[in-house]
From TrEMBL:
Annotated signal sequence range: 1-17
Species whose genome carries this gene: Sphingomonas ginkgonis
Name of the molecule in the record: Glycoside hydrolase family 92 protein
Pfam families hit by this protein: Glyco_hydro_92 (PF07971), Glyco_hydro_92N (PF17678)
Presence of the UniProt keyword rRNA processing in the record: no
Domain Glycosyl hydrolase family residues, every copy: 288-750
One record GO biological process: carbohydrate metabolic process
Domain of life where this protein originates: Bacteria
Keyword Metal-binding: no
Transmembrane segments: none
SUPFAM superfamilies the UniProt entry points to: Six-hairpin glycosidases (SSF48208)
Length: 773
């Protein structure tokens, strides 16, 4: 009996010894991307939340010098300046950092942040990562200089702080309305603080930063009564005569208006941790109070609710694989679910691009659109896994933004309802088209198409008048002309696709013709996309490796932009001389020797593999182009090279800034084994998987399972592919096949299968070979 019992224990031992696979929410590491140039923040937020409550390690930079602190927090910094309520995730530009709160203990309260190189010179504090924790919806750190433990959590429109002060010391909060992540003289146009009779502190500020005239309101309540307070204006200059804020008048116990406001809040000695609950609004202070009421509960209740929201959102994808790649991909999914963020209040009101208050009827208005980046993979991912909750809201938000835009154009790079006019193209068009063609409804499709056409025909924008007249953007009339020409042509194709689906044949024919305008800037003799003068001649001198802002290309050069024809890669490859020459040029791009080049002047040029630049978006589809040339096995090699060098589960684990989820969405799709090279085509190009198993739990209740038999570092090639048990010889999946549910199975091997996908009939959509279908 003893022998049998021992045998049973031994047989069970391996299973017992296996560590439990963590839940998706516990597999996320928000610290990934907080170092290097990832520009992510580690703090607390809900999926697509209006509030991003996170530590700021330094806000002392000025304008473009703020690039390294675009998210407020940088892993390498030794001090925390405070905790503010708004942040971008991975942006290539800085702003936000609104409503900085910093706890202090003791008798004296410091009003200046001080020098990070001189401990004790101000209210900032040293910290170390050993006493720091970050999880979806939760962040905690112990401030070394004061011994205060700070915890942060957030709901959709609220952020909650919890501070544990050292025993025997007075507790204070400093609220600094001067602080921002985009600093220069005169940024704070006006601000106000109002203490209401019930103890609620409300306020506002208007800023002139990346987005002009941005207004933000807040309401703040405390778990302990105030013992004392002081509102201080650090700049008693002549008052701003524009927007004055609502004022509280006789309703307020205390009120202060000014350009450089701080609030000192004293609570005495506390027997319990202090909780501070804050709600934001873009409408008014009463809207912030209503948002505060709309999300009841203390710190622990809000934290539990948000954790449940994250568990549901991340549960849309089940991932099995080694811990490092599992952590990287789940964190990438997490970063993909942060924006576009909620901007309307709980009652539906929001402040639009015309600076007026509107009401979202039956949907949640969203903002924070980095469309030049996110149309590529971020929005297709949301359309696939969150069409009802997210994509319909996104489309309605875009269309209503166009309705209320003073220029009647769809958003370009919008946040907090305000347009920045950053980057190029009218890439809201492919976002809308891709969603509609994938079956997302809940919006007026014809009104959406009208908004797309209005944007594509707004002559004052980005050389569009010249583009419509000549079929290309001339470089002597408009900077970055080569990039604009090809990006406009792609956007035009997406408009044509939606118009044809709606039966509006006149619009479809017009924009299908415009979709071919990319040829007008492609120099077939040299094989490069080049900028042309208004005379028709290509501009000289020409260097395909040159990268200069405001030149022929946008954040790139001819090496990257010569591949940007997502709608007609087959047409491009014919101009390059066919498949073999295309593959040779792709290889030359990846294998280019950069040793004699210096790109230090270009902030967004990071993650170089030859002239392939993964840290910036124009390269993101390029590895998949081998598939269009009949060499999927070469794509499989390049994808392994990119994933292996550009992503890792560490603070510096992103090669470049995440750009509101685009870098992350690329990894999510690529790890699954396919990627949307041409959003709007209803196709995903097959690459190779990086996970043993993945399941998409689709909103329609179906499940799409991806299996990778034999996957290992050695077995990096796709030997065979089956879809629902049948051999799949083509190199793409249809959107409808994924949404129907089923099984995609890869058999992996150590040797390239050069026959699979080599035939022209196996290749993904191209306009010139597939027609306008």
């Amino acid at each position: 009996m003893r022998s049998l019992a021992l045998l049973a224990v031994l047989l069970a031992a391996p299973a017992l010894a296996q560590p439990a696979v963590p839940e998706p929410v516990d597999s996320v590491d928000p610290m990934i991307g907080t170092g290097g140039e990832g520009h992510t923040f580690p703090g607390a937020t809900a999926p697509f939340g209006m509030v991003q409550l996170s530590p700021d390690t330094d806000t002392s930079c000025e304008i473009r010098a703020c690039y390294g602190h675009a998210a407020g927090y940088r892993y390498e910094d030794p001090t925390i300046q405070g905790f503010s309520h708004t942040h971008f995730s991975g942006a290539g530009h800085s702003d936000f950092g609104d409503l900085l709160v910093m706890p202090q203990a003791g008798s004296a309260v410091k009003l200046e942040p001080g020098d990070p190189k001189q401990p004790g010179s101000g209210y900032r504090s040293r910290f170390d990562h050993a006493h720091e924790q970050a999880r979806p919806g939760y962040y905690a750190v112990t401030l070394s200089d004061s011994g205060i433990k700070a915890e942060l959590t957030a709901g959709t429109r609220v952020g909650v702080h919890r501070y544990r002060f050292p025993a025997g010391q007075d507790a204070h909060l400093l609220i600094d309305l001067r602080s921002s992540l985009y600093n220069y003289p005169g940024k704070i146009l006006w601000s106000g603080l109002h203490l209401r009779p019930d103890g609620t502190l409300t306020g506002f500020r208007e800023t002139r930063g990346w987005a002009p005239g941005r207004k933000l309101y807040f309401a703040m309540r405390f778990s302990a009564p105030l013992a004392d307070h002081a509102f201080v204006d650090r700049d008693e200059a002549i008052p701003y005569k524009g927007f004055q804020g609502p004022g509280r008048g006789s309703d307020a116990l205390a009120e202060k208006l000014g350009k450089a406001l701080e609030a000192r809040l004293d609570f005495g000695r506390l027997a319990a941790p202090l909780e501070v609950k804050v709600a934001l609004s873009g409408v008014d202070e009463d809207g912030a109070v209503a948002n505060l009421v709309a999300e009841p509960g203390d710190f622990d209740a809000i934290r539990a609710s948000t954790r449940a929201e994250w568990a549901a959102a991340l549960g849309a994808v089940e991932l099995d694989g080694p811990a490092p790649i599992r952590t990287s991909v789940y964190t990438a999914l997490y970063h993909s679910l942060l924006a576009p963020s909620v901007w309307s209040d709980a009652d539906g009101r929001y402040r639009g691009p015309d600076d007026q208050v509107h009401r979202a009827d039956g949907y949640t208005f969203r903002s924070t659109f980095s469309l030049w980046d996110t149309f590529r993979a971020e929005h297709p991912l949301l359309t696939l896994i969150q069409p009802e909750r997210t994509s319909s809201d996104v489309v309605r938000s875009l269309v209503d933004s166009q309705r209320f835009s003073p220029d009647h154009i769809l958003p370009v790079w919008q946040f907090a309802g305000r347009e920045t006019w950053t980057m190029i193209g009218y890439h809201a068009a492919p976002v809308i088209a891709d969603a509609y063609l994938a079956g997302v409804r809940g919006f007026d499709a014809n009104a959406a198409l009208d908004a797309m056409v209005a944007s594509a025909t707004y002559a004052p924008y980005g050389g569009l008048g010249e583009y419509m007249k000549r079929g290309y953007v001339p470089i002597d009339k408009e900077p970055e002309a080569a990039s604009k020409t090809v990006e406009y042509a792609y956007d035009d194709w997406s408009i044509a696709r939606m118009a044809r689906a709606l039966g509006r044949e006149d619009v479809a024919a017009r924009f299908e013709k415009r979709a071919g305008n990319w040829r007008n800037s492609f120099d077939a003799k040299s094989g490069w996309l080049r900028a042309r003068l208004s005379t028709g001649a290509f501009r000289t001198p020409f260097d395909p490796t040159a990268i200069n802002y405001g030149s022929d290309y946008t954040e790139g050069n001819a090496w990257q932009y010569s591949w940007f024809v997502p709608q007609d890669q087959a047409g491009l490859f014919r101009l390059l001389g066919g498949d073999a020459k295309t593959v040779a040029k792709l290889d030359a791009m990846f294998d280019y020797d950069n040793s004699k080049l210096d790109y230090s002047h270009a902030e967004d040029i990071a993650g170089l593999i030859g002239q392939y630049i993964h840290g910036n978006e124009p390269s993101h589809h390029v590895a998949y182009l081998y598939v269009y040339a009949g060499a999927p096995w070469r794509a499989q090699e390049r994808l392994a090279q990119i994933v292996g060098t550009q992503y890792k589960p560490t603070p510096d684990g992103l090669a470049g800034n995440d750009d509101l989820g685009q870098m992350s969405a690329w990894l999510v799709f690529t790890s699954l084994g396919f990627y949307p090279v041409a959003p709007g085509s209803n196709e995903f190009v097959i690459g190779r998987p990086f996970l043993d198993r993945a399941v998409l739990n689709l909103p329609n209740g179906r499940r799409f399972t991806i299996l990778a038999d034999g996957l290992s570092p050695t077995n990096r090639y796709v030997s065979t592919v089956t879809l629902n048990g049948r051999p799949l010889e083509r190199t793409y999946l249809r959107d409808s096949e994924i949404r129907a549910g089923g099984e995609l199975r890869f058999t992996m091997g150590p040797v390239a299968n050069r026959a699979w996908g080599a035939g022209k009939g196996a290749r993904p959509y191209s306009l010139s070979t597939s027609g306008p279908r």
